[in-house]
Specification:
The protein is an alpha/beta fold and 392 residues long. The chain has 14 helices and 17 strands.
Length: 392
């Protein structure tokens, strides 16, 4: 059997940066064989300038919104963004499918090998059946009106069944709540039995209005439901931030992904991290900047832990689907954040969160994680000019 021997200025194995004399050895199809020293590897090395890393994991995206690229104004706040999505979402099916295919191709070119995709329909099935990359299908339910809970759950169940019948993996599919402000107690109760053994994701504290709604029952979400003529009489504000209100409902999940966390405070962080040892905070900084003109305080949130993963959100709220671009904005806003630390979030942490740790995320023997090359680094650190290309 012939092997490829890949050598670069830096080699990141999914967990650590290795000494500069290390060589990655893999089969022609990208299956990892071993890591050797340069003297052990001998001849026929492929030498590159830059940093070699496992392929990236995009833990949060909405392929179904790809056709909305460039159509929604930036920095208008989450509630106005929601109304924009509602108003623009329904467009010709051919346009939606074509945009999803282009979006997946963009992710592949950007070194992404797996994605956690939010599914409100089964429209992505034809694309995913081509198996160009791996997915965790997060079937997402919304339903604030209690009387509609059964119908909404059945709709989600039908979407899940279509995805499974089309060949999607049951291990990597779950039914999920959209956000605490959009799921009634009755709908929660229908979903909770299905959380066992699954990765469950939820949009968490993406705007200040979310916490206000749960603390006082007022603010932007109260106004939003009034505009939508939706009855909120069943909801009594618990007087806390949103996270303490719903977190216990996720106790049976195998893994938990809290997405965005833009307005998460240290007390909520402590509660989340002590609640579940497989709870991850998914950062989507480009989308947070696009929608709310604000990033989570990653310096504070990450002071004593590294349970971060990364997502791109959708092309409705982002200019591109690139984990490298997410890393760049973090590095720009938090310049002391080390590249090697962030690469853990983008690779092995992401694979673990999406239950692909047996296949992706690091350069362990037998895995086929994808291999990417980061070029134009500065002293081994990502900066504005850094680029990414996929080697395998």
């Amino acid at each position: 059997m012939s092997y490829r021997k890949l050598k670069a200025d830096f080699l990141f194995d999914g967990h650590h940066q290795l000494p500069s004399d290390r060589v990655l050895v893999c089969q022609q199809d990208g299956t990892i064989e071993t890591i050797l020293t340069e003297s052990e590897a001998g001849t026929d090395l492929e030498n590159y300038s830059g940093l070699i890393s496992p392929g990236f994991i995009n833990c949060h995206c909405h392929l179904e919104l790809s056709h909305l690229k460039g159509q929604i104004p930036e920095k208008q706040g989450l509630i106005n963004f929601i109304f924009s999505v509602i108003g623009l979402r329904n467009q010709p099916r051919e346009k939606i499918l074509s945009a999803m295919e282009s979006a997946e191709s963009e992710m592949l070119s950007a070194g992404i090998v797996a994605a956690g995709d939010i599914c409100n329909t089964a429209d992505s099935l034809a694309l995913k059946s081509k198996r160009r990359m791996d997915y965790y299908n997060f079937v997402e339910l919304l339903g604030w009106v209690s009387a509609q809970a059964s119908a909404r759950y059945e709709q989600g169940r039908q979407t899940a069944d279509l995805l499974l019948a089309g060949g999607q993996d049951e291990k990597h599919l779950s039914i999920n709540p959209h956000a605490p402000y959009s799921v009634s107690e009755e709908l929660w109760e229908l979903m909770i039995p299905g959380f066992t053994g699954k990765t469950i994701t939820i949009h968490n504290q993406e705007s200040a209005a979310e916490n206000e709604f749960f603390k006082q029952g007022t603010g932007g979400f109260s106004d939003m439901y009034a505009r939508m003529k939706m009855d909120t009489a069943h909801f009594q504000a618990p007087g806390s931030n949103s996270l303490p209100f719903y977190l216990h409902k996720l106790k049976n999940a195998a893994k938990i992904l809290l997405v965005h966390n833009t307005f998460m405070d240290p007390a909520d962080l402590r509660e989340a991290l002590t609640f579940h040892d497989q709870l991850f905070l998914c950062l989507c900084p480009q989308a947070n900047w696009y929608i709310e003109n604000r990033l989570p305080d990653i310096g504070v949130l990450g002071k004593n832990h590294d349970r971060f993963v990364l997502g791109t959100d959708s092309l409705a709220s982002n200019h591109q689907l690139s984990i490298l671009e997410e890393l760049k904005i973090i590095k720009r806003q938090f310049p002391l954040m080390a590249t090697n630390r962030m690469l853990v979030w983008a690779t092995s942490n992401g694979a673990q969160a999406l239950a692909y740790e047996d296949k992706l995320g690091d350069f362990s023997k037998g895995k086929k994680p994808g291999i990417v090359l980061l070029e134009q680094l500065t002293a081994g650190e990502i900066d504005a000019k850094t680029t990414c290309r996929r080697l395998l």
